[in-house]
Amino acid sequence: MDISLFDYELPKELIAQEPIEERDKSKLMVLAGNRIEHRRFYELVEYLEKGDTLIINDSKVIHAKLKGKKETGGKVEVLLVRNIEGSIWECLIRGRKIREGTKIFFKNLKAEVIQKKDKFILKFDRENLEEYLEKWGEVPLPPYIKKELKNASRYQTVYAKKPGSIAAPTAGLHFSEKLLTQIEKKGVKIAPITLHVSIGTFKPVKVEDITKHKMEAEYFEISKKSAEIINNTEGKVIAVGTTTVRAIESSSVEGRVIPKKDWTNLFIYPSYKFRSPIRGLITNFHLPRSTLLMLVCAFAGREKILRAYKEAISKRYRFYSFGDAMLIFK
User: Fold this and answer.
1) 89-147 pLDDT, tens per residue?
2) Which domain holds residue 81?
3) d(CA 310, CA 292)
């Protein structure tokens, strides 16, 4: 399957550089059958009914970007990807002449490169970095966002609980506390799951034949309680975000969700046979040629999604992480 099938042209000015003032005031494109409706996100509640279940990803973005210097004074930028154990982390590094044995100095922290392969393995001089990152680390925004983020909490969902992601599950950024309350009052159940967003989600596809692309594994958890809520749903099951879909699909058998803590490298693209009970998807507008766009095309149909994207561009929707949203029903 050729990667060019998932290409489209996007005017640069439609790449959202900052979140809008109020989370739930973003635009919402609704796809139901061949019908397209243009709404605002706070109107989502009108499309939900008593007995429905909304699955959310409660992963929290860690301040995973650190700026430091080598012993020579050369600048280094480190992105913490995954905690292997204790003080040892898998990282991406930007800087010159980084090799095994290179020491990197940060504010009140230092690290040494102990392995260099496709990624770097760093050993820090302290074990628990959570508090340090919260104080000194930076939110790792995507490279297409050039504007400085004034409020780091805006790259965090209001229901984020479990630290571990290095990118936000962006479909959830549109929910306000008020909207979630309205949704629950309507009799809609909310089932939290966790998938820590990492390189697997945003790694570019570099092969022409997408079937040869390999996803990097990401950690997920689905509790017994959330699995029961989903499996006992009387109405529609709606996933908030592509990360949620990948977690649920990775733990579903013949329409039922199995509680699980595991790693997934599941790559969903057109021709994939869905095995979960998900019938609706809330998602942002994604980059051309990305695995996220491929997943959405697998869920709803490639031609339908690319037509919707074309209309979104003509209606001046905002794209990518801080952009607008879609609600898609199967």
Assistant:
1) 999 999 999 999 999 999 999 999 999 888 899 999 998 898 899 999 999 999 899 99
2) 65-136
3) 17
